[in-house]
Amino acid sequence: MIRSLEEGEDDLRIIDLKIATLEKKKAKNELDKEHDEIQKRKIKRKKEALCDSMKEMDQKIKETEEETSFFLSAYQQLEKIEPLKRHDDPEANAEFWNENFSQELQLRILLQKPLDIDLVKCILALDEGSLVRREMIGILEQIERKAIMSKQQSKIGETNG
Question: Which of 51, 61, 69, 144, by CA, is between 20 and 30 Å from 158?
Answer without folding.
Answer: 144
